[in-house]
Amino acid sequence: MLNSGQLIQDRYQLQRQCGRTAAGRQTWLATDQQTQEEVIIKLLAFSPQMAWEELKLFEREAQVLQALNHPRIPRYRDYFSLDQSVGGGLPWFGLVQDYIPGSSLQDLLDQGHRFTEAQVKKIAKDILKILIYLHELSPPVLHRDLKPSNLILDDSEQIYLVDFGAVQAQASVTGVTFTVVGTSGYAPLEQFWGRAVASSDLYALGATLIHLLTNTSPADLPQKNARILFADRVSVNRNFVLWIEQMTEISLEKRLQTAREALELLKSDKIRHRKNPNTTPQTALIQKLHKPFHSTLYLHKTSNRLDIYLPPKGLGKLFHLEMGCLHLFIIYFSCSLLFSVFMSMSLTNPSLFWLLCCLLFASGFLWLFFLIDEKTFVEFDHYEFRIIRKSRGIQYRLQSGSLSNIIGVFMEKKQSKYEVVIRTTSQTHRLGEVFVAEECAWLTQEIQDWLYSR
Q1: Backbone torsions φ then ψ of 25, nearest 5 degrees
Q2: Which sequence positions are flagged as catalytic?
Q3: Longest Cα pair distance anywhere in the chain, in angstroms?
């Protein structure tokens, strides 16, 4: 257990806990005993319940921050691990950064602060300069969680971008991005598909500016066709409203493409009336995956429909046949046991006993007959998706949902295997199969592509 006043790494003395974002995550204000400067330490407890992706994100944050050098991004100082004796029975990982005295924009909003149009424009310009630096690095760095609580305003009205816990260096994307990051209301739709691009950060900035102008979280504002409606709630320059609307376009093709373009338009107080024909819309830097040669999955898609056939679990029909034989053996064993128990009965009424045995054997063969032919199908059309099981002409629906309610399609690790997960606004649907990583990644990307292209 970590406590105020505790010295860790023989260097950092903890002062007070600043936040506890989730189970196993803590943020502390501490004093660096070597420099006598205040620092911020982010700590992650490595517990058995922790998803492996959390540690990967934490390590990625440290690696990316170490390579950054910008006056409005807190400087990386150190990365370390604590053993169980120091961490109260759990190993901990720590990330140390410069401490920025000030208040987050979220804290100011919570305190009732009202931002003027001039203040919001200045904040927008300052953040765009930070994004220009990040996005024009090689490879580009995407923040992916830009929102008021991650923006610190100091006493001199300088803005700082903090908390790179969802950061993505795009060169590291070799397949499909499946870690779900971002905050509802600020993250654009493509980010929930695992396809964040540079203009995804622009959308988050636009949503943040809407929050500052309206004092209302974007998630709580009305929407039409997935577009945030806010113009009737603010009294600011019309061109500024139109600029923010271009920042928060749900369509990548219509949204402002780069932070540099957005800053130039904001400074000139002009509107981009039409798409620049020389500008190619951004696409996610995600490699197109191919079906593994060993896969027995079948997939057929058109512009109107996507049909997926999932073979029986495990090793396919062979697995089901083996399971059928196992159950057949159990039935045989049960019959043998019944034979020994009712041996005396057979002497007086043998026909009754043999009738019972025949019925048990017949039920076992019938079960095996249906099991071997059992198939699972996943169907998507314009309106809904359905997970269906068919066996010997008998069809029944396992799960279904509306396409309009789908938040995203992801792959999740299940012990040593993976599964495809469809998340909607009301529940989580699992396809009911386990796959190897390559097969699951391919299938997830195929479903994502079909849904995303509609």
Answers
A1: -120, 130
A2: 145
A3: 104
